[in-house]
Design goal:
This protein is α/β, with parallel strands linked by helices. 40% of the residues lie in helices and 16% in strands. The strands form three sheets. It has a six-stranded parallel beta sheet, with helices on both faces. Helix 2 packs across helix 3 and helix 3 runs parallel beside helix 4. It is globular. The relative contact order is 0.15. The mean pLDDT is 93.
Length: 242
């Protein structure tokens, strides 16, 4: 089984490359012809391309988020449709869903904001592939070697960790090892469709914060005011607070 990746140098991409030894890396600056060459004899394409979402959203950076997801996926799908690839697995996010509404994959409600629109357009582009297609809507991916946890650890280790606001917002999370097993399952069983890549039981930010503090043997008594997050990240704060 030969697998090709976009976004191969990110946290999830690195973990997948270790798991699927026979792989090819697809670069953002690959031309249509070089993409086609690389896809020769590839069985599965995994699309992880996308600029980091936790960053202050200026208008220009919003366009970067769009181009790195929609534009890259469009170019990739065009190449797949001219190749012998057997299965396409693209990435999405649970940011597509509205607040205050428990959702599984059957949920047809979507939030009315930039993040949700971005995700919807991303999925539509992926579904233009003419091969069996799976889409994984990521929650917060946790693991010791990268992702959200590495950004949280420094202040927590200093005893400065705390809840976001009152800690009531829910965290839909998944461990990197479970996420890798989902990919393995999708490929082995030739699954198509849209799936939430999250653990079965989301927890509140308060519960998550206290659990992390307990594991690190550190206090978690300094809540982070929501206005500070909005000051730092502007609209992007919604990724943390919704």
């Amino acid at each position: 089984m030969k697998v090709a990746f976009t976004g191969a140098r990110g946290f999830v991409g690195k973990a997948l490359r270790k798991h699927f030894r026979d792989h090819i890396i697809l670069e953002r600056d690959d031309t249509p012809s070089s993409l086609l060459d690389k896809l020769q004899d590839v069985d599965v394409v995994i699309n992880l391309a996308g600029a980091p979402i936790i960053k202050r959203w200026s208008e220009s950076y919003k366009q970067t988020l769009v181009d790195s997801r929609i534009g890259t996926t469009r170019k990739l799908v065009n190449a797949i449709n001219q190749s012998n690839v057997k299965h396409f697995i693209s990435t999405s996010a649970i940011g597509i869903y509205p607040n205050e509404t428990p959702c599984d994959e059957s949920c047809t409600q979507h939030a009315d904001d930039f993040l949700s629109k971005l995700v919807q357009d991303w999925e539509k582009e992926a579904l233009n592939a003419k091969v069996p297609t799976s889409i994984l809507r990521f929650g917060v991916v946790l693991g010791k070697d990268g992702g959200a946890l590495t950004q949280m650890l420094p202040p927590f280790k200093l005893g400065l960790g705390g809840t976001l606001g009152d800690g009531s917002m829910m965290t839909s999370w998944i461990h990197i090892k479970d996420l890798i097993r989902i990919y393995e399952y999708l490929i082995t069983h030739h699954c198509e469709g849209i799936y939430n890549a999250t653990a079965p039981h989301p927890v509140s930010n308060h519960t998550f914060t206290k659990a992390l503090g307990k594991v690190l043997h550190r206090p978690t008594i300094f809540p982070i005011p929501l206005f500070l997050l909005r000051l730092l990240f502007a609209q992007a704060a919604c990724v943390l607070t919704d």
